[in-house]
Design goal:
The complex is a heterodimer of chains A (432) and B (116). Chain A is of the alpha/beta class and 432 residues long. Chain A contains 15 helices and 17 strands. In chain A, a hairpin with a 2-residue loop joins strand 16 (295-296) and strand 17. In chain B, a hairpin with a 4-residue loop joins strand 3 (69-72) and strand 4. In chain B, strands 1-6 form a two-stranded antiparallel sheet. In chain B, strands 2-5 form a two-stranded antiparallel sheet. Classes of the chains: A alpha/beta (432), B alpha+beta (116).
């Protein structure tokens, strides 16, 4: 292993690869270290990747990337144990070029992305776990130590793209690990199903896809969300819940997933499918207040490692790409100016503050606390809405005036109208 | 209603469900994944005394999605089946006593997702 590079990037996910791409194109001598057998082999997400940030890095790249399906329809289901109120939006424009977003399977997508970065001139070494940072007496990061004999690699700048399990970020003193209410655990199954069946069941034309986010009973009363996404010849079905709620519920996440599979609205969609992989991933979702310190002398932290996700809008890999790109640009400036200290690297945070990445993290800073303290949004309101809809759609001999009065009485019995108004106001204040 | 009570409530029609929609155990699911198991563990119980004396709930034996942790009643300690670990990291932050040391497996070892 060569012992000196301009920049070492730890982790070949979307954040690290974006940084590596910008650096390689800028002429820097960049090394990317990945602990898996191949890029993507350790990487999991629900499956929706947004085109905009990929297109900024690789214009038109989506046309050759191993994408699964262009998402033309997005749905929300508000669920009780045996019912669901659904809301969705489809637009045929999204089937065109460019798409808004598409599903990907990360083991395939990340390999493609990594190949692009290697073609641009970056060096990628897989099967290599970085076990420590090399820091000088002043705490400046000057390199990394890989878990192999003579594994020291020196660099002017180290970019930590190690993912949510950010052990090196912690060793740099930039983060103190996630608290139980700052992260969610999601488990997911990839369920193989013939492509015609997927297109029939979801009402799709070839190549088009749909997403479903499931609120309410999908997470069994805990703060969380279920999801079902269409891939080419498989479905990605999963559920994520706040770690704090999971731990103290005494439930196993696999039981939550199996429970979701039995829901009468989910069951027919996955019927006859064959599970081909089971995965789990921690998602940092503590908002702006929970993110890592983003830089210090010689080092920057990007993507999940820094806690850059937007759980409310199920975004993460796009924030990873933007943060990686900007960190790469700032690293190039640091190399050009011969100063890889905080003086230059602070531009990474300054610029990120100006983007949607940190603006959205500030917007949803207290989203988790809000829903944690107001469980009625996850339990009572879905139940109430379901009962209202049931009454509304059930035709009996009740005249419609009486029916409306009955629904209103039902709501008032459950919750005074002023409380509902107050709850909605609070929600608007918290996340609106 | 608690999460557990909600989960226990049966869905109408659940009792006459078909054979292929029967719940699948974690162990069966882990067989679907590709692992390159190391000979050495990357997960460690820092102080077994804490599990024995301070943690009757044994949270990790329940919340781990890969069922890595199991209480050995005879040995009176938590057994760590690191070979089936899918490397989510939840145990590191989910142990209320922060009593689990979590490392990345050595390079090339551990789960290797084919779908992701």
């Amino acid at each position: 292993m060569a012992e000196r590079f301009d920049v070492v990037v730890v982790g070949a996910g979307p954040a690290g690869l974006s940084a590596g791409l910008v650096l390689a194109r800028g002429g820097a001598n960049v090394l990317i270290l990945e602990r898996g057998e191949y890029p993507g082999s350790k990487n999991v997400m629900g499956g929706v990747l947004y085109n905009h940030q990929l297109d900024e890095l690789i214009p038109g790249g989506w046309r050759e990337a191993p994408i699964e399906r262009n998402i033309i329809e997005q749905n929300y289901w508000l669920m009780t144990r045996d019912s669901a109120v659904s809301f969705g939006y489809r637009n045929q424009d999204w089937a065109g070029d460019p798409p808004n977003c598409f599903t990907v399977l990360r083991a395939k997508f990340d390999q493609w992305f990594a190949k692009k970065v290697e073609e641009a001139g970056a060096t990628l070494i897989t099967r290599t776990t970085v076990v420590d940072l090399l820091q000088d007496d002043d705490g400046r990061v000057v390199g990394v130590r890989a878990g192999r004999p003579e594994g020291e690699v020196y660099a002017d700048v180290v970019i930590l793209a190690e993912g949510v399990n950010n052990l090196l970020t912690q060793k740099a003193g930039l983060h103190n690990d996630w608290k139980m209410n700052e992260a969610a655990l999601a488990v997911k199954e990839v369920i193989e199903l013939p492509r015609e069946k997927i297109e029939d069941r979801f009402g799709l034309e070839p190549g088009q896809g749909a997403t479903i986010e499931m609120l309410g009973d999908a997470s069994a009363g805990m703060l969380g969300m279920g999801f079902l996404y269409t891939n080419k010849e498989s479905l990605s079905l999963g559920v994520g819940v706040l770690v704090k709620h999971l731990v103290y519920s005494g439930m196993n996440p696999n039981d939550l997933l199996e429970r979701l599979k039995q829901h009468p609205k989910v069951r027919p969609l996955i019927e006859g499918g064959r599970v081909i992989e089971y995965s789990a991933k921690l998602i940092p979702e503590g908002g702006y207040k929970a993110i890592a310190r983003l830089f210090k002398d010689g080092v920057m932290v990007v993507g999940d490692a820094a806690g850059l996700t937007n759980a409310i809008h199920r975004e993460g890999s796009n924030l990873a790409m933007t943060s990686g790109r900007i960190a790469g640009e700032v690293a190039l400036e640091a190399l050009a100016e011969g100063d890889p200290t905080s003086r230059v690297l602070r531009r990474y945070q300054e610029r990120l503050e100006e983007t949607y990445v940190l603006k959205d993290l500030r917007k949803y800073n207290h989203a988790n606390e809000f829903f944690d303290e107001n469980p009625q949004f996850l339990r009572d309101y879905p139940e109430l809405l379901s009962r209202m809809m049931r009454e509304f759609f059930t035709v009996d001999s009740t005249p419609k005036w009486d029916k409306q009065a009955k629904i209103l009485r039902m709501v008032r019995r459950e919750r005074p109208l002023w409380r509902i108004a107050y709850d909605l106001f609070k929600m608007w204040r918290a996340i609106g | 209603m608690s999460a557990q009570a909600l989960a226990a409530k049966p869905v109408p029609g659940e009792e006459k469900e078909k054979k292929d929609s029967r719940p699948v155990s974690i162990e069966d699911k882990l067989y679907l994944n590709r692992f390159n198991a190391d000979k050495q563990s990357h997960l460690f119980i820092i102080d077994p005394e804490i599990c024995l004396t301070k943690c009757p709930e044994q949270y990790c034996t329940k919340f781990c999605p890969a069922h890595v942790y199991e209480w050995d009643a005879e040995a009176q300690k938590i057994l760590v089946g690191y070979e089936g670990c899918i490397e989510c990291g939840t145990c590191r932050i989910g142990c209320p006593f922060r009593n689990i040391k979590w490392l990345n497996p050595r390079g090339g070892y551990g789960v290797q997702y084919r779908q992701g």
